[in-house]
Design a protein that fits this description.
By secondary structure, the chain is an alpha+beta fold. The protein has helices spanning 9-22, 27-42, 56-64, 94-112, 128-136, 190-198, 234-253, 288-304, 315-327, 333-346, and strands at 4-7, 75-78, 84-88, 114-122, 141-146, 167-173, 176-182, 202-208, 214-217, 228-229, 273-280, 329-332. It has 10 helices and 12 strands.
Length: 356
């Protein structure tokens, strides 16, 4: 990473908290939002961090357009004796409703052995792995999915209908968490948008224009509009990602998610999504200590078959987090510019960098 200056995670969290409070959010809910955004930055998932494309800038802009109600409180529905619940986020802060749902899934798992919570009428919740890791920290295995605004044609289709619909899934293995967090498309859309605006090339087998022509190299931003990111598996094997994508959406429908195409935020600022959180106990067959030992043994066996460059799911993010906690989060100049712009709009002072 070039031209970076480090920022304290604590200072970044305080800044994001104060900005969110300035929009009218309650202090505790603003803090959760800030912690989730900073958690993405700590892991090196800058696209979902404080200065990311779905971060604080979006929150400021959409709340001022009344597309996000920062004062809205989620409503929980839960039938006694059931391990499943639903939350109506009421168009409020995405991260706070999502974290409430994840923690409720854990509570249900503690009581029933497994727990599942659906969120509907929600907003973007940041990086899905953050919620999975919060549940892993409580000793559970966990999974999270989310619908998103439409940017993909179904495999074999000719019109954009599906989102990038991520899946995060993880388990506690020994003292570490093994977590995968992936879009069900070849990549997220934001890297393509950044590349077109910066005049840098996009990779092949990634994006088609609205006429179905494959895009590659340096392309104008306008060519993405109406076009489609390819499903995971690309041109030849995209039926795999498309199928996963569709199942994520259908699974969210049973919890109150939209039955219609979800408009992306370039079509409308009031884009509503849904999420599903699952948690389950790992000690249903063996004592927890033994399960963790068995999982750790399996992870160690995986590593026997890889060289020094082999990383298990979540390992790169864990390394990024260890470095960021010790030395600060590396922020590029474009990210600092984003913070300065937010500061200008809200009057909240930008934190001082840790490095020149």
């Amino acid at each position: 990473m070039v031209n970076t200056k480090r920022i304290s995670p604590e200072a970044l969290t305080d800044f994001a908290t104060d900005v969110t409070k300035s929009l009218g959010a309650a202090a505790d809910r603003a803090r959760v939002t800030a912690e989730v955004l900073t958690a993405a930055d700590l892991r090196g998932i800058s696209s979902h961090g404080v200065a990311g494309g779905t971060g604080l800038r979006e929150l400021v802009d959409r709340s001022r357009l009344d597309a996000i109600d920062v004062t809205a409180l989620p409503e929980v529905k839960h039938k006694s004796g059931w391990a499943v619940a639903s939350i109506n986020a009421n168009g409020g802060l995405g991260a706070t409703a999502a974290m409430e749902a994840a923690q409720l899934a854990g509570d249900l798992a503690g009581e029933y052995g497994c727990g599942r919570v659906h969120v509907h009428d929600g907003n973007h919740f940041g990086a899905a792995c953050v919620y999975v890791e919060a549940l892993i920290a409580r000793g559970f295995a966990a999974r999270a999915t989310c619908t998103s605004g439409s940017w993909m044609m179904p495999y074999g289709g000719n019109r954009v209908r599906l989102g990038t619909n991520p899946i995060a899934w993880g388990l506690p293995c020994g003292d570490e968490a093994i977590v995968i967090d992936i879009a069900t498309t070849q990549r997220a859309v934001s890297p393509a948008i950044r590349a077109t605006r910066a005049g840098t090339p996009i990779p092949p087998d990634y994006f088609k224009d609205k006429d179905g022509n494959m895009l590659e190299g340096v392309v104008p931003y306008e060519s993405l509009l109406g076009g489609s990111v390819l499903p995971l598996g690309g041109e030849a094997f995209g039926y795999k990602g498309s199928g996963l994508n569709i199942l994520v959406e259908l699974d969210n429908v049973i919890g109150g998610g939209s039955t219609k195409r979800i408009k992306n935020m370039r079509e409308t600022p009031k884009s509503r999504v849904s999420q599903t959180f699952e948690a389950w106990r790992i000690d249903f067959l063996f004592p927890e200590e033994e399960v963790r030992r068995r999982l750790e043994e399996t992870v160690n066996d995986f590593r026997k078959y890889g060289g020094p460059e082999m990383l298990l799911p979540g390992e790169r993010e864990a390394r990024n987090m260890a470095d960021a906690k010790a030395n600060g989060i590396p922020y590029e100049e474009t990210q600092w510019e984003m913070l300065r712009g937010i500061s200008k709009d809200t009057g909240i002072e930008v934190p001082t960098s840790l490095s020149a």
